[in-house]
């Protein structure tokens, strides 16, 4: 086919065909559109090859990270330990905390021996009566020298009468007429004035208002419902030492306040008389009742009291739990103070991650507790091996329990923070976003540790 024939056929197919714009002698020309497409193809191919190269490099980097994972994790672990290691300030605070814990341990009182029944005195023991008489004389002399005057009124006794006369809640005569059984010599258990704790309120007010406040018994029909309930009666202090008519309990407080307004020295004398009376009764054959029990359940309180279990027995039995609880609370308080002081010195510019700083706080508290408790265990073991039978009883069980709790909770907290730190830093390394560890192809570059 000749060139003319080829042109004729193309025109027949495409009337707009112009051979002069498409063809030249011996060659084929390219349109602008085709040039643009060729340029785009070149750009896309170049971008494709660049991305392929970048992916290849990233693959090599990831392979390098995974291949060196144990080494990287070891570096991150060391970085965590360095960032949570104690500083000079931390060591000073640790010494202070340890000193406070040791002081707490050695300031705790030793447990007292049980006061045996054979050592108790009779109620009207002459030696005890003489000792009380001397104490009253000394108290009176001291107060007169200070210029105390004895004010007398029709309604209230003077402070000297309060000092020398009987306490009104010791009265039992006339109780039967009021339908109350005082159980003779066991009346202390029924009167709130003899309560070792409540007596400092009711006993003092009874003394100032010449009254007796009791807890009626359900089994004897003295109250209709077995619930906490108290009743107050007047006591005749001049003449026969007997009960008088019932009086509202709130009046013991109003009358006491009225007496106090007349002469404040009556209150001081009443407190002194209350203390002397409780002390003398505590070491007698019948002793004092268990605190609060008469108020809660008088019938049960009487059963326990008549079987010979009183305040001294109760105090002996609870001294170890009380010592343990008080020691534990004091140990916790010291830990809170030390933790608060250390947190106060937190500087986010030096350590932006507060959790890592909190690990140091936990270490200070945990180390101080462990050192103090270990010291107590060692000295207890030495005393026990030398034949000291009281060594184990006087051990700091409260501090030991706090230390065990701190070991469990603090180690758990540190491990949790460490796990989160390693996970977070590993993600940064994996995604090449950790400034401390830089991975390029087959090389790993470690930066500063802190």
How does this structure look, described?
This protein is mainly alpha-helical. The protein has three domains: 1-30, no CATH class; 72-109 and 317-444, no CATH class; 121-286, no CATH class. The chain is 59% helix and 6% strand. The chain has 15 helices and seven strands. It has helices at 3-13, 19-22, 32-67, 69-83, 88-107, 126-145, 159-164, 199-209, 250-262, 265-282, 293-296, 298-306, 311-344, 354-385, 397-430; strands at residues 23-24, 27-28, 211-214, 231-236, 242-247, 437-440, 443-446. The strands form three sheets. The chain has a three-stranded antiparallel sheet with strand order 3-4-5. Strands 1-2 form a two-stranded antiparallel ribbon. It has a two-stranded antiparallel sheet with strand order 6-7. α13 packs antiparallel against α14 (354-385) and α14 (354-385) runs antiparallel to α15. It is elongated. The protein starts with a helix and ends with a strand. Residues 21-26 have low confidence and may be disordered.
Q: Could you list some keywords that capture this structure?
A:
three-stranded antiparallel β-sheet, two-stranded antiparallel sheet, 59% helix, elongated, 450 residues, mainly alpha
